[in-house]
């Protein structure tokens, strides 16, 4: 039974994700270094989920997920060491780079991305509570995600175009994070 599930998962879930990521990498070499992974056989219905990441720098990754809700994309700066968190907060506090981040995040939210992350419960010590970027200073991670849906295009080569378009929207945030955090 287990071997049948593994064959079906490989055929129906993992192989299409590898093909999608190969098409994305063929279209833009910036995305060549990708990894495809799933949740493993220990989780219930694990064959229904698949993830791929493109690592841009330590703790900074573009991601693609496929599950029963369809395809989704995201950018995550997470599991960061304390040095990166300190660099992130210094860049947010800086008027120039901090204002750029606010603009980038506002643009992503207008394009339908959801911005989340691990936040401190209180304002960051050493910064006034009414700091213009106090909410961003509370972040210990930044995640931008957007569901792309489960329409007919998901079974065609057009899926790579949707992923590439979403990645292009995330490019400014990715570059900001790589420059200021890594």
Description of the structure:
There is one protein chain. The chain has five helices and six strands, in the order αββββααβαβα. The model has no long low-confidence stretch (mean pLDDT 89). The longest helix has 26 residues. Helix content is 45%, strand content 21%. With 182 residues, the chain is of the alpha+beta class. It has a six-stranded antiparallel sheet. A hairpin with a 2-residue loop joins strand 2 and strand 3.
Q: What keywords describe this structure?
A:
182 residues, 6-stranded antiparallel β-sheet, 6 strands, 45% helix, single chain, alpha+beta, elongated
Structural class call reads alpha+beta
Strand residue content: 15-25%
Report the mean per-residue pLDDT as an integer: 89
Number of strands: 6
What is the percent of helical residues?
Answer: 40-55%
Order of strands in the sheet with most strands? 1-2-3-4-6-5
> What is the 3D form?
elongated
Which stretches are low in confidence, meaning pLDDT under 50 for 5 or more residues running? none
**Quaternary class:** single chain
Terminal residue distance: 45 Å
Largest sheet: 6 strands, antiparallel
Q: Tell me the series of helices and strands, N- to C-terminal.
A: HEEEEHHEHEH
**Cα gyration radius (Å):** 18 Å
């Amino acid at each position: 039974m287990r071997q049948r599930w593994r064959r079906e998962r490989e055929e129906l879930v993992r192989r299409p994700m590898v093909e999608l990521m190969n098409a994305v990498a063929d279209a833009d070499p910036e995305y060549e270094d990708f990894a495809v992974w799933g949740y493993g056989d220990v989780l219930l219905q694990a064959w229904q989920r698949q993830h791929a990441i493109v690592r841009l720098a330590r703790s900074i990754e573009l991601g693609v997920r496929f599950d029963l809700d369809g395809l989704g994309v995201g950018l995550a700066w997470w599991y960061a060491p304390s040095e990166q968190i300190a660099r992130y907060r210094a860049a947010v506090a800086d008027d120039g780079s901090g204002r750029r981040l606010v603009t980038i995040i506002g643009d992503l939210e207008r394009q339908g991305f959801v911005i989340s992350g691990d936040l401190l419960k209180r304002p960051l010590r050493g910064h006034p509570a009414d700091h213009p970027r106090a909410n961003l200073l509370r972040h210990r991670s930044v995640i931008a995600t957007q569901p792309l849906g489960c329409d007919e295009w998901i079974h065609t080569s057009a899926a790579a175009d949707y992923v590439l378009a979403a990645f292009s929207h995330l490019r400014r945030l990715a570059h900001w994070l790589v420059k200021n955090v890594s």
